[in-house]
Amino acid sequence: MSCSKDSPEVTETNTTAGLVTNYTYNNDELEVMQLINNYRLSIGLRKLEIVNHISYKSAEHDLYMIANNVVNHNGFEDRSENIVSVLGASKVGENVAYNYKTSADVVKGWLESPGHKENIEGDYTHFGIAVKLDSNGRKYYTNIFAKI
To answer: CA-CA distances (angstroms) from residue 72 to 25, 56, 113, 115, 122?
Structure first.
């Protein structure tokens, strides 16, 4: 899925309005970011800078998807508005995914999907990622891009 402006059926609570500066990355998150930046460099684009606040907002969405057993972009408008107001972003995009076993698989899946690929190749300068596991060991991915 790529970002959508559709009205969400279930709303997400925007729990963090201020700047989040601390975020601890797991190996999956680091791998996905590296793979995305390697891809961008391979096609002549600049690599994206990591922003902990964006990763925190991504993690909030992963936890929402896990709690509600859904994969969607509900609350994207709120996440986007937060990133615009807190970080001064002029543009925000989002990719989500579910149940890919490896970082390489999720990035490959996104690159094979026109909407996701458009975000990865987009005119962005920064990004964040969260990869969280549900109780059954399935991975949920939220990758948010921003132009700051």
So the answer is: 22, 17, 15, 14, 20
